[in-house]
Amino acid sequence: MLGRSLLNFVLLIVAVTCATAQHVPPWTEDCRKSTYPPSGPTYRGPVPWYTINLDLPPYKRWQELITEKAPALKVIVNSMKDVVNAFVPSGKIMQIVDQKLPGLLGNFPGPYEEEMKGISDITGIPLGEIISFNIFYEFFTICTSIITEDKKGHLLHGRNMDFGIFLGWNINNNTWVVTEELKPLTVNLDFQRNNKTVFKASSFAGYVGTLTGFKPGLFSLTLNERFSTSGGYMGVIEWILGKRDAMWIGFISRSVLENCTSYEEAKNILTKSKLLAPAYFILGGNKSGEGCVITRDRRKSLDVYELDSKQDRWYVVETNYDRWKNPFFLDDRRNAAKMCLNHTTQEKISLSTIYDVLSTKPVLNKLTVFTTLMDVTKGQFETYLRDCPDPCIGW
Ligand SMILES: *[C@@H]1O[C@H](CO)[C@@H](O)[C@H](O)[C@H]1NC(C)=O
Ligand SMILES: *[C@@H]1O[C@H](CO)[C@@H](O)[C@H](O)[C@H]1NC(C)=O
Ligand SMILES: *[C@@H]1O[C@H](CO)[C@@H](O)[C@H](O)[C@H]1NC(C)=O
Ligand SMILES: *[C@@H]1O[C@H](CO)[C@@H](O)[C@H](O)[C@H]1NC(C)=O
Ligand SMILES: *[C@@H]1O[C@H](CO)[C@@H](O)[C@H](O)[C@H]1NC(C)=O
To answer: Catalytic residues per the record (predicted)?
Structure first.
């Protein structure tokens, strides 16, 4: 719910604090090489797979996964509560979340309402808190997404999921509290109908939307947060006031992955639907030229920037800034990623060299929870948990 200027202001404060605390560490580095297969201090470990059976009623779909992950989910929901209570110590806000939020927001469309109710009942976490956990990602996801095309027209899609800024810093080991707590909740999901994969996603247990996923053979999709002064909070207010024609961004991505059957159909929906919050959709297809960054306002698409082999545009990169504007000077992951892609060259691009780019600071930073690599035509989908030991920038 933050405008860009507020984000920048807070980053500046954090930067000054970090700089004085640890006398200006090297926050950037030369493009990494030979980091794949993942190992060493920036690799935390593998991510487990779970099947979500779409043939089950929505209320029951998450039962197995959530039963296993309930303790970790409680930890993070409590941390988010602590943050809220730190701002408004009376506990009033959480009281409203628990008692009033489900009523205020009314029913969510599609399977989401019942899925969240199921998760709430299994864990015993109040529905309002599960809804908050699901809404959080609409506002705080700071990421890097890349789509590349090699000389043969083969597409690859990679992303770093960065999450947890503002939500508390652990001074014992220089980490973000929520970023660390999300690592044990990180899961790969295989959504199936009739025992067959419909789409795959990497996500956090308890979250029913999708921010990272692909449909084997057809398309891949990642979502990055877009900060804007007419930001998501306006959409939420309109929603509460009863104007419910717009889609939550994490939910529209899931619907597209679940129900669209081509790159073109996905692109059409993602450019045209009304959204609750601004966003960047990074969409890849299954053949040459099918890769784009869609810059979204709440009501319309502002820009669709596509791969174009005729113009030697063999990659697209999106972090959290409009491509026609400079990134905030303390957060230039975009140029770092582009520089390393240029350095790699189109001849040498592969999942392994994309992992190198996504492992280079500050593209890799202390908010990075995981890295996902996707090859739509080969059906490859890999997710790795990350760490960024000191010296490493906070975002
Ligand atoms: C930092 O400390 C927290 C809390 O003790 C722990 O959960 C987390 O795994 C630690 N992170 C690293 C990278 O050591
Ligand atoms: C899916 O597979 C399981 C076990 O292999 C089987 O029991 C079940 O009937 C199958 N379901 C469908 C919808 O085909
Ligand atoms: C996908 O379409 C089916 C059939 O129309 C619908 O029941 C389901 O809710 C849709 N899924 C999502 C995530 O919107
Ligand atoms: C690529 O996607 C299109 C739909 O956009 C589909 O018709 C076609 O079969 C796909 N190609 C392959 C090789 O899977
Ligand atoms: C990467 O290469 C392109 C094309 O040569 C160039 O326009 C761009 O400035 C380069 N970017 C960086 C960050 O090196």
So the answer is: 143
